[in-house]
Design goal:
The protein is mainly alpha-helical and 78 residues long. It has one domain. The protein is globular, with a radius of gyration of 11 Å. The chain starts with a helix and ends with a helix. The model has no long low-confidence stretch (mean pLDDT 90).
């Protein structure tokens, strides 16, 4: 699961039950997953999108970023 597309999709699946605005988070995830990027670039794009969103979506994005980092850290240890 080192592929960036699968990392963001798995992260989304894991955080979706906790998201306040799942539809908006899904839209953001789909846009970012459509591009081939390293996990660090995905996090940077999410952070840039975050500044234009309302507080609940920003919180959802923070949760998603944390999950991406968790997945990446797990991949490095295996």
């Amino acid at each position: 699961m080192t592929d960036s597309h699968s990392i963001i999709r798995v992260a989304f699946q894991r955080v979706a039950p906790h998201a306040s605005n799942i539809q908006r988070l899904r839209e953001i995830t789909e846009v970012i997953a459509g591009n081939s990027e390293a996990p660090e670039e995905i996090v940077a794009r999410l952070r840039s999108i975050m500044v234009h969103e309302d507080i609940t979506v920003r919180t959802d994005i923070r949760i998603l970023i944390n999950e991406i980092r968790h997945i990446v850290a797990g991949n490095k240890s295996t």
